[in-house]
Write a structure and sequence with these properties.
By secondary structure, the protein is an alpha/beta fold. The chain is built from twelve helices and 21 strands. α6 packs across α7. The longest helix is centred in the middle third of the chain and has 20 residues. Bound molecules: pyridoxal-5'-phosphate. Its EC number is 5.1.1.1.
Length: 434
């Protein structure tokens, strides 16, 4: 469907179009009516604009759609795979893996997730500012007084990632007049953050006796859960279980425990402890090819609009570097999405799009804000049409519309590409769960 206001492309000779325009007054059609270009008062430069974007314009360029009903379905499918009573905590760090944390976090809670995990203080504060009341755990290390004070003020729960943080946490708690809620991160083999597993049980016992600390849980993170039959993962599980045994033997209160990410949760049929921290699977992607869940579907669709179409002769260079040269008279369409939106430039010339019920190939170098497509064989395609770049509801045989396919082409993982979907893409809820 063509965008309202601009039909087809270049059907009228350029000279005629200009003549038509000059016949009328010098004006521009703005959303609020016709404006005189010689008087710039209407721009309101003296008063900072208070307007927010017109919701209809959110789909004028490029955007992400989030399928709310599918998110709920994914959560239910995953919950059914977990040990009875195990809670799902939704990992919504990095803007919910590019899906839009503001949108996804409340949806996940409404669908049954019991808490949220973020990586940074700022991510947690943003969700609180939005009014979310659910528990929010900051997974990253907070090593300074200022960070911990802010975390307490925003009622965030923090990770204890090394014993040296304890005095600072106690001071902050005293100032706040309430205990600091902590989750003890134990390094059982990831070698990233956390107290050494050999010291975990002893430290837990000590922490339980510190009134300034509210010991919420003890957790660890798996390094190789996405590998089939991983001995390293089994070693991490064994170490974690040993810590639990040691705590029990010491007679200390047994913490709430969590170890599994998506791959860990799906590779083990039981023994999921009190919680699992799920990211990728919740978004509908299997964390490894051998860890498929029937019915699990990606909740993200990436779409953009064609803003220009031109007919060019054979031997015309297209885009930066002229790395693509037309081999026949061609109709070249420009799509308003580029690498600044998160489409990797290294996919130049390798992308396929879905437009008007068929495939179209991307040609030439992907630029910062736009990329070009060969629509020579598709006269039906017009300026304003939507091209879909990622989406699971398309013909399931078309694996090229899965982020996994992009990742395979680039030798990376879906996580990296999803997180790369930039902030300037509006995130829109489609298929609301009610
Ligand atoms: C500590 C921690 N827990 C859980 C997750 C969720 O992992 P996944 O998206 O594979 O479920 C992550 C993600 O990187 C993480 O860092």
């Amino acid at each position: 469907m063509a965008a309202p206001g601009l039909q087809g492309n270049g059907v009228k000779p350029v000279a005629n179009v200009v003549a038509d325009a000059l016949a009328g007054p010098l004006s521009v059609q703005a959303a609020s009516g016709t404006k005189d270009l010689n008087n710039l008062d209407w721009l309101g430069l003296a008063d900072p604009p208070t307007c927010s974007p017109d919701p209809d314009l959110l789909t004028s360029r490029a955007w992400v759609e989030i399928d709310g009903a599918q998110l709920r379905q994914n959560l239910r499918l995953l919950q059914a795979r977990l040990s009875p009573g195990t809670e799902i905590w939704a990992v919504v760090k990095a803007n919910a893996y590019g899906h839009g944390a503001k949108l996804v976090a409340p949806l996940a809670i409404a669908a049954g997730a019991k808490g949220l995990c973020v990586a940074t203080l700022a991510e947690g504060i943003e969700l609180r500012q939005q009014g979310l009341k659910a528990p929010i755990l900051v997974l990253g290390a907070l090593n300074t007084w200022a960070e911990l004070r802010q975390a307490m003020a925003a009622r965030l729960e923090v990770s204890l990632t090394c014993a040296e943080q304890i005095p600072l946490m106690c001071q902050v708690a005293r100032l706040a007049g309430r205990p600091c809620p902590i989750h003890v991160n134990v390094d059982t083999g990831m070698t990233r953050l956390g107290i050494p597993w050999t010291e975990a049980a002893l430290l837990w016992g000590q922490i339980c006796r510190i009134p300034e600390l509210q010991a919420c849980s003890l957790f660890s993170h798996l390094a190789t859960a996405d590998e089939p039959d991983s001995a390293a993962m089994e070693q991490q599980r064994t170490r974690f279980a040993q810590i639990v045994e040691q705590i029990q033997r010491a007679g200390d209160p047994l913490p709430s425990l969590h170890l599994d990410n998506s791959a860990g949760a799906l590779s083990h049929l039981q023994g999921h402890y009190a919680r699992v921290r799920l990211g990728l699977a919740l978004y509908g992607l299997p964390p490894a090819p051998h860890l498929q869940v029937p019915g699990l579907q990606p909740i993200l669709r990436l779409k953009a609009r064609l803003t220009h179409i031109q007919t060019v002769p054979a031997q015309t260079g297209v885009s930066y570097g002229h790395r693509y040269v037309t081999h026949r008279p061609s109709r070249i369409a420009t799509l308003a999405i580029g690498y600044a939106d998160g489409i990797p430039r290294r996919l130049s010339g390798r992308l396929q799009g879905w437009a008007g019920g068929g495939l179209i190939p991307q040609v030439g170098t992907i630029t910062m804000d736009q990329c070009m497509w060969d629509v020579t064989d598709r006269p039906d395609i017009q300026v304003g049409d939507v091209v879909e770049l990622l989406g699971s509801h398309l013909d399931s045989a078309l694996s090229r519309f899965q982020v996994q396919d992009w990742a395979d082409q680039l030798g990376t993982i879906p996580y990296e590409l999803l997180c790369g979907l930039s902030a300037r893409l509006p995130r829109l809820l489609v298929n609301s769960p009610e």
